[in-house]
Amino acid sequence: MPLASNPLTDLRTPVRTPIIPVSPRFVGEAQTLDLEAICVFAALGFFLDQDSYYKEVKALRPAHTYDTYPKPVGTPWFTWHYEPRDITLRQAVNEFTDLFEAIIDEQTGSANVILPLSGGLDSRTQAAALAYLKKDVHAFGYRFERGLDETYYSSQIARRCGFAFENWVVPKGYLWSEVDRLATITGCYSEFTHPRQMAFLDRYAALGEVFSVGHWGDVLFDDMHVPDDLAFDDQVSALLRKIVKPGGLELARALWQAWAQPGHFDDYLRERITALLHAIPIPHSANARIRAFKSLYWATRWTAVNLAIFQSVRPVTAPYFDDRMCQFICTVPEKWLAGRQIQVEYVKRRSPELARVPWQEHRPFNLYTYRWNKMPYQLPYVAWWKLKSKWSKSKLIQRNWELQFCGEENELRLRAVLFDQSTLSMWMPEELVAEYLQRFSHQSKREYSHAISILLTLAMAIKQYRVPAS
Fold first, then answer.
1. What are the boundaries of each domain within the chain?
2. What residues contact residue 362 under an 8 Å CB cut-off, 6+ apart?
C-alpha cells in the first residue's frame, strides 16, 4: 500500500500494531507541512516517532492498541525492557533455534520462498533454517556494476543449501527510470540512495510466492558497542553519532534556517532524542536501551519503509520482526548477544558447511575463524587487497550513490529533478540546492551524498503531496 496515496484514515475498528511493524500505518488528514519533522528527516534519513510530512498526519506507534477515531492516541500492549535470565550460551542458542525455525515455518508455510541473500550473517541464518525445514527456495543476490562481487559469497551459500540462485548486477543510473515508482511505493519516507532492490522490481514475482527477509537480526543479536554502564547523557551522544548521517546535520541546520524555525536545530534534535530514550524503561543496560530505541524508531520508520518495495510485488515475512523474537531478546543476557554469538553458533550447529563460507564482513575468514580478523592474521589478505586495488583499471564502486549521482548523465538527470520549477523551489531556495550540488561536485562526494539524496527525495515528495510550504 503506497504511503503517499493511502494513509490510514479510519480507526473505527480496533488496530493492534506489532512490536516492529512490517508496514508503517498513518492516520490523519494532510493540511500543514511539518517543517521541523522534515529537518529531522534530513539529518537522519528517516522520520522520527509519529512524524510525517504533515503536522496532522501521524504514524501509528508500534506495540500499541488503537480503539477510537480520530485521535491517534494508543495504549501500549508491550514495552521494551531488559530482564536477563541466568542461562548459558548453549541454552540461548537452543531457545533461539526452536523459536526462529518455528517462526519461519509459520510465516512461509507451503509457499515457494523468495530469499534475498548477502554475504552477511542474517540471511545466512535464514538460509540455514529454510534448508533445514526443507523449504522450496529461490534466492537472489546483487552487486554493483564495477563493484565488489558480493554475490560470490551469497551464491556459495545458495549452492550449499541447494537453492536456485539469481546473480544480478545493479546498473549505473538505474534510479532515473524507477524514481517515480519508488516515490509512490515508499511515499518518500526513506531517502533514495539505499534501496538498490528497486533495480529488479519486475523480476521478483517469477521467483516465488513470499519473501523471507533477514532485516534487523544484526541489531537484535549484537551489542551496540558501548559500555553497558554508560551514563545516560553519554548514551544520547552515542545514539546521535549512530543515527545522524554524514552531512545530514549540516543540511538540517540549513533547512531550519531557511524556513526560519525558532531556536537551534541541534538543540531541538537532542531534546527529542533525549525524551524518547528516557522514556524507555531500561536504566541499567545502555546496550539494551539503545537497541530498544533503534527497534522502536529506526526499524519502524526506515527499515520497514524500504520493505514496501518487496511488498509491492509479493507478501513479505520478516522473522526478526516477529513479536516473539522481540520478547525473547528482552530476556537474553547482553554477554550472549554481543558479537553475534547466537547466530554464529546456530549456523554452525545447523550447517557446518554453510559456516565455512567466508563471512563477508570478516573476509576471508568464516564463522569458525572470524575471530582471527585482526593483525597479524589478516595481513596477507590486506596486502592482497591493496595490490588488487592498485592495479585495478577502474575505481571500485562501493556505494549506491556512486552509481546514481556520479557521471555526466547522472548529474543531468539529477539537476532536471532538483531544479524543476514546479517542485523543489516551492519548499526551499534554489541557491541552497545549488550550493549543495556544488559541494557534492567539488568538495566531497562522500560527505554530501546523503544531502543530495535527501534533496532528491524532497523533490519527489513535492510531486507526491503537492502541498506548498507554509
1. 89-221+296-390, 400-465
2. 370, 373
191-199 average pLDDT score: 83
Helix (H/G/I), strand (E/B), else coil: 387: helix
Q: What is the mean pLDDT of residues 8-30?
A: 83
pLDDT digits (tens, 9 = 90+) for 255-295: 999 999 999 999 999 999 999 999 999 999 999 999 999 99
Parallel, antiparallel, or unpaired for β 64-66 and 15-16?
Answer: antiparallel
Grid coordinates representing 6 are 493511502
Taking each helix axis from N to C terminus, what angle separates 445-465 and 248-258, rounded to the nearest 10 degrees? Answer: 50
pTM for this entry: 0.92
Across residues 36-62, what is the average pLDDT? 95
Distance of alpha carbon 4 from alpha carbon 6, whole angstroms: 6
Determine the CATH number of domain 89-221+296-390: 3.40.50.620
Which amino acid, one-letter code, is at 339? G
How far is residue 420's CA from residue 26's CA, in Å, rounded to a whole number?
A: 29
E-strand ranges in 13-155 read 15-16, 26-27, 58-59, 64-66, 75-76, 113-116, 137-144
